Amino acid sequence: MAEGIDKKTGFCAASLFSLLSVLSAVLSSEYFVFYLVLAQIAAFLSVARAEKVHRSREK
Fold first, then answer.
1. Sequence-ordered alpha helix ranges (H) in 1-59
2. Fewer CB near the terminus (10 Å): N or C of the chain?
3. In the chain, where are the structural domains located?
4. Are 32 and 21 a contacting pair, CB within 8 Å?
5. Distance between CA atoms of 8 and 58, rounded to whole angstroms?
């Protein structure tokens, strides 16, 4: 699933979703929870991909 996702791209996406969630919360929008969930998913996928790459380089 995360095979084609570069780890840096995932971390950038997570940062972007986090920033959008803060802006949505400041603007009293109800979508900030949605952006927080997307940020958590992007960060999780990026960490999982980075761990997989790190383990493959150790071998």
1. 7-26, 32-58
2. C
3. 7-58
4. yes
5. 20
- pLDDT 10s digits, 39-55: 888 888 777 777 787 78
The pair of three-digit structure tokens given for residue 31, joined into one six-digit string: 């979508």
Angle at 17 between CA 42 and CA 28, to 5 degrees: 140
pTM metric for this prediction: 0.64
Contact 58, 44 (CB under 8 A): no
Residue type present at position 59: K
Cβ atoms of 43 and 21 closer than 8 Å: no
> Hey, what amino acid is at 26?
V
Alpha-carbon distance 24 to 32, whole Å?
Answer: 5
How far separated are the first and last CA of the chain, in Å rounded?
22
